[in-house]
């Protein structure tokens, strides 16, 4: 790390983070940009009625937590039961599924947990199955963002894990990040999700949310790229302005991500105000590309802007990837990369 009297220059590629099960559990809450998410703050698009319908159905799902007045077993004031203990939000990227998931979480009483599929599988891996189950048992609500179908072993592990939690009275809400694109662009495969977790499918109601990617609405085009000289000037000015900038060569970052478990990517970003990447190129290795997608998800959650040289980051996935089974993942990453490179940088000279 290079420090100045005002800011600092760091290298993500020099960070070797570790993370404990307790740390993972402590972080199981919505990302910063959804800290105040609510059903009222979700802006529905009148061109897509399913958005308002989803809000109404989620309010009904949350009704089970509303305070009840004292009453006996036959009281008409008894707390209503949810139609099903699980709810699944199915829709394209950028339609607000995570916002609605966070809004549901904020309205639930504790104990409650919110995390990505990767974070929950990492928790089980760090603590062990039985201790992780004991930790989350008794939760009123568990929210799973980006339920993955990439790894059948992890998927079935989570099927068993969630089945035991739901049997104990925990409600589960999930969004999906399924690889197959058989149902068309921008649509997650609800049927595939439910088939993969067949043991739980009868406990889930599915909400379809149609709409346009809100990031694309505001940021048409591609990610912004600058030349190396402009990148250097921007980094120098940001550091002089008191900011912590992570400057790395793109290839070095891609190689480093292969040595770090995705659950630890968030710790690679600790204290970073801006990410600067030099020499972005088109990726042709699927594993490299998927790691970049997972990394960008954490960068987006942390709301860290990116400045980059070389190929525009929105063009970093080759044509074969963009027509393959992980197409929707890459499309989501592209929309986030456009937002991260076209947003405002922190104030600098």
Automatic annotation (TrEMBL):
Single GO biological process annotation from the record: cell division
Name recorded for this polypeptide: Cell division protein ZapE
Protein's organism: Agromyces atrinae
One function term, GO molecular function aspect: ATP binding
Alphabetically ordered keywords of this record: ATP-binding, Cell cycle, Cell division, Nucleotide-binding
Gene Ontology CC: cytoplasm
InterPro entries reported in the protein's UniProt record: ATPase_AFG1-like, P-loop_NTPase
Pfam families (alphabetical): AFG1_ATPase (PF03969)
Transmembrane segments: none
């Amino acid at each position: 790390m290079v420090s100045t009297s005002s800011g600092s220059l760091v290298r993500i590629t020099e960070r070797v983070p570790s993370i404990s099960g307790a740390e993972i559990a402590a972080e199981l809450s919505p990302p910063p940009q959804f800290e105040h998410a609510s059903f009222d703050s979700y802006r529905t698009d009148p061109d897509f009625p399913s958005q308002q319908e989803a809000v109404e159905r989620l309010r009904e799902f949350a009704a089970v937590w509303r305070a009840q007045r004292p009453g006996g077993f036959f009281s008409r004031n008894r707390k209503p039961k949810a139609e099903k203990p699980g709810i699944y939000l199915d829709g394209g990227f950028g339609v607000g599924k995570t916002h609605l998931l966070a809004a549901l979480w904020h309205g639930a009483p504790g104990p409650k947990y919110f995390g990505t599929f990767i974070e929950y599988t990492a928790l089980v891996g760090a603590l062990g199955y039985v201790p992780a189950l004991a930790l989350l048992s008794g939760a009123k609500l568990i929210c799973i963002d980006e339920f993955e179908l990439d790894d059948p072993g992890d998927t079935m592990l989570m099927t068993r894990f969630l089945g035991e939690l739901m049997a104990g009275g925990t409600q589960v809400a999930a969004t999906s990040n399924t690889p197959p694109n058989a149902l068309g662009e921008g649509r997650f495969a609800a049927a595939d999700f439910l088939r993969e977790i067949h043991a739980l499918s009868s406990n889930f109601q599915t909400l379809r949310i149609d709409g346009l990617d809100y990031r694309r609405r505001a940021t048409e085009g591609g990610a912004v790229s600058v030349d190396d000289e402009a990148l250097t000037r921007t980094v120098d000015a940001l550091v002089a302005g008191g900011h912590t900038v992570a400057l790395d060569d793109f290839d070095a970052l891609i190689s480093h991500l292969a040595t770090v478990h995705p659950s630890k990517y968030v710790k690679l970003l600790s204290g970073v105000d801006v990410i600067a990447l030099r020499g972005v190129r088109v990726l042709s290795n699927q594993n490299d590309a998927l790691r970049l997608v997972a990394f960008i998800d954490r960068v987006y959650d942390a709301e860290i802007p990116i400045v980059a040289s070389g190929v525009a980051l929105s063009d970093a996935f080759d044509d074969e990837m963009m027509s393959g089974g992980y197409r929707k993942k890459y499309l989501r990453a592209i929309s986030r990369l456009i937002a991260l490179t076209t947003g405002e940088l922190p104030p600098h000279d």
